[in-house]
Amino acid sequence: MAELQEKSLSGYDIIGLVHRRFNVLLSSGTVYSLLYSLERDGLVSAGMDHRKRVYTLTEKGEETLQTVEQANGEIHGLLQNLISNKR
What we know:
The chain is elongated. The protein has four helices and three strands, in the order H-E-H-H-E-E-H. It has a single domain, classed as Arc Repressor Mutant, subunit A, CATH 1.10.10. The protein is of the alpha+beta class and 87 residues long.
């Protein structure tokens, strides 16, 4: 979802992005199923760009992403404190 903050992406774009970044090849069924679920939940919206269906993060999606990033930061801080206190 974070990549959708930058620009709209198609499912095919997302498959390529994950493959390049993590060297994992996701099936189109996996990616499109997840995208449809995110769309149903109102986190992304879909539109057409020429002949491609592209997905954009909605306001609700941005708020959700910020919440996840904040929680991730808090968890990271907690783990750092636990590790520091063990030494």
